[in-house]
C-alpha cells in the first residue's frame, strides 16, 4: 500500500469538518439546557407577597424575575403557576421591576 499525501490531507479535513459540525450542533443544545436549568419557580418565592397583595416587590424579587424572565411564558402555560403570573398583581410586580409582560 502506498502512502498518499493527498488522501491524508483529505482525511484530516474531513475530521476537522466533523468536529466543527459536532461542536456547532451541541452548542444550541447546551444553551437550551442552561435556559431550562434556570427556570426554578421556587426561586421566585420572594415575589409571592407582592404578587398576592400588590405590595412593592423587593430587590431580591426583581433580581430573580430578571434572571428568569425567559421562563415567564413557560410559567404562564403551566397550570400550576399561571394564576401567579397572569394576575393583575403579577402585572404590577413585573412593571415595578421594569420587566415587560411577555407576549407568548
TrEMBL record:
GO terms for biological process: lipid transport. The keyword Metal-binding does not apply. Pfam families: Tryp_alpha_amyl. Residues 1-31 form the signal peptide. SUPFAM superfamilies: Bifunctional inhibitor/lipid-transfer protein/seed storage 2S albumin. The keyword Transport applies. GO terms for molecular function: lipid binding. Residues 39-104 form the Bifunctional inhibitor/plant lipid transfer protein/seed storage helical domain. Keywords: Lipid-binding, Signal, Transport. InterPro entries: Bifun_inhib/LTP/seed_sf, Bifunc_inhib/LTP/seed_store, nsLTP2. PANTHER family: BIFUNCTIONAL INHIBITOR/LIPID-TRANSFER PROTEIN/SEED STORAGE 2S ALBUMIN SUPERFAMILY PROTEIN, BIFUNCTIONAL INHIBITOR_LIPID-TRANSFER PROTEIN_SEED STORAGE 2S ALBUMIN SUPERFAMILY PROTEIN. This is Non-specific lipid-transfer protein 2-like. It comes from Raphanus sativus (Radish).
Amino acid at each position: 500500500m502506498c502512502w498518499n499525501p493527498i488522501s491524508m490531507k483529505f482525511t484530516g479535513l474531513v475530521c476537522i469538518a466533523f468536529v466543527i459540525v459536532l461542536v456547532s450542533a451541541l452548542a444550541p443544545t447546551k444553551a437550551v439546557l442552561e435556559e431550562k436549568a434556570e427556570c426554578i419557580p421556587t426561586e421566585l418565592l420572594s415575589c409571592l407577597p407582592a404578587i398576592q397583595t400588590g405590595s412593592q416587590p423587593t430587590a431580591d424579587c426583581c433580581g430573580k424575575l430578571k434572571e428568569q424572565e425567559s421562563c415567564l411564558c413557560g410559567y404562564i402555560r403551566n397550570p400550576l403557576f399561571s394564576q401567579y403570573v397572569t394576575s393583575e398583581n403579577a402585572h404590577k410586580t413585573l412593571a415595578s421591576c421594569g420587566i415587560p409582560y411577555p407576549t407568548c
